[in-house]
Amino acid sequence: MKRVHITRKAVAQAVLVAAAGVAALLFGMSEKMGIGQTYHGIWVNGSFLGYVSVETDVKQLCQQVRRELSAESGQRLCADIQWEYEEIRKPFQKLMTEDELKGALRGIITQAADLKTERVYTVAIEEYRANFKTIEDALTFLNRVKAGPDAAGEYEAYVCAEDSHISGILNADLTAVSPHGGSVIPEETLADRLSAGANAQISGAMEYAAANPDAGGYQTGVLDMEFIETVEIFENYVEPGQIADIDAQVEEVTKEKESNKIYVVEPGDCLSVIAMDHDTTVSSIVALNGMSGPDQMIRDGQELIIAVPEPDLRIRMTVGEVYEEEYTADPQIIENNSWYTTKEVVHQEGTTGQRERNDIVIYENGMETSRELIHQNILVESQAAVIERGTIIPPTYIKPISGGRYTSGFGRRWGRMHKGVDWACPVGTTVRASSAGTVIQASYSGGYGNNVVISHPDGRMTRYAHNSKLLVHVGQHVEQGDAIALSGNTGRSTGPHVHFEIYINGAAVNPLNYIGN
User: Fold this and answer.
1) H or E element: which one contains 348?
2) Average per-residue pLDDT in the chain?
3) CA 493, CA 422: separation in Å to the nearest integer?
4) How far is CA 85 from CA 41, 50, 51, 53, 100, in A?
């Protein structure tokens, strides 16, 4: 028998060749198979089509198929295709190529057009759908929706094609009716109107008012009206009997339905106020957010789920309003750099005036959301008050020790006045300056024992008594929080503690009303 000598190098080369072969095989399989990676299962109109890679842009493919079919037929072809996907991770799943997915989509859309015998115009507002026999019926439906806030019939619905949309989809909005009859169709697209909207109206009005302060012209009545939600209209195929009744759909789309919204808690909010502002109940907020009860604390910036009653289609109106009101001119402030901000002196009382004002007001479904003064006519001028006010921020006061057990408060005690508050604590606890100032006493003083007295820039004084050791001397400046003594049991004391006093205008006050913590 012939022996074959196999070296280690040869074995290693063979292993590498085999590994490369397996890798090539797996790479080839991965072109059509999911090997344990994440991919998507696709459903269209409720039917499962297959699996695709996560890089597949299903929405773009749907739009592309619609364009191709419209171009081939020479007509708009917009069957209502609803698609969704689910993220899946299973090994060795066959994946559809983009061409296979496009073919399946073509079949679904073509079948929809062949099987459904009636061509309609579908109005789509987010999840809402209604089918109308003609485009005129769809516009009649929208005009009846806006008829409530527009009793005078100054606006009407119109449709326009959007460059950003696929062939066959139209956008609907509202436009002013010309005094000479017919609609004043704006040149800009709906997207432009939504981005500018009422802000442009207000900005232009305010610029005019600023440039023409004595002009007698006012902006009144309905200045603009638009749908808040995006309204799309497209041709579709439906089975007989699926044509919507206009009156029934007007009632359906304008009635309020509960929908969940996210509300971000603002400073000063509480559950009862949030509930009142959003036409809901505290119990509803508690239930939706899994809270322990109506007394649970909420914090600034916290996100809450709130059930808000809203219709499917809302209308935003920009209105010019004119009315008279009393007003008070902004006061004239004289800054005093040697006073604290808590001090002010009124040198001249202001008077109330009368004015006629022109506001631009925005309403969303009848609820005012903003109001801006653009023009005013002063009937009786208000005389501004003259106020002198300090600019220096006053010092703050803190508890002189960390921890400690509160043992005695301010007031009558044992038949005599207790001029401060006490905290029991171990001897040697660090006593700190409650506020910045200058030490005016640091010595043994009768019943106070070893005590420190500090004079503060705002005229107040603080005392720290019964200390075991003093760490400062008279005339020394200290900052808030600086160590000034070690606690003890000196003087007239019933046990180791810190006695703390605050004096304002020479009179002792309750320190707990002034310390921040």
Assistant:
1) strand 344-348
2) 81
3) 11
4) 5, 10, 9, 11, 16
Residue 34's identity, in one-letter code, is: G
What's the whole-model pTM score?
0.53
* Dihedral over alpha carbons 367, 369, 375, 377 (to 10 degrees): 50
Strand 437-444 to strand 450-455: parallel, antiparallel, or no bridges (unpaired)? antiparallel
Q: What is the CB neighbour count within 10 angstroms for residue 20?
A: 10
What confidence tens digit (pLDDT) does each residue in 255-307 have? 988 778 899 999 888 898 898 888 888 998 999 899 998 888 898 999 999 98
Q: Taking the CB of residue 444, how many other CB atoms lie within 10 A of it? A: 12
User: What is the total count of domains within the chain?
Assistant: 4
**Chain position carrying tokens 């003259």:** 386
CATH for 267:
3.10.350.10
pLDDT tens string 14-70 = 434 444 444 444 434 444 555 557 788 888 877 788 888 877 787 778 777 777 777
Among 425, 434, 374, 423, residue whose Cα is nearest residue 399: 434
Distance, C-alpha 13 to centroid of its chain: 63
- Of 115, 142, 176, the residue that ends a domain is 115
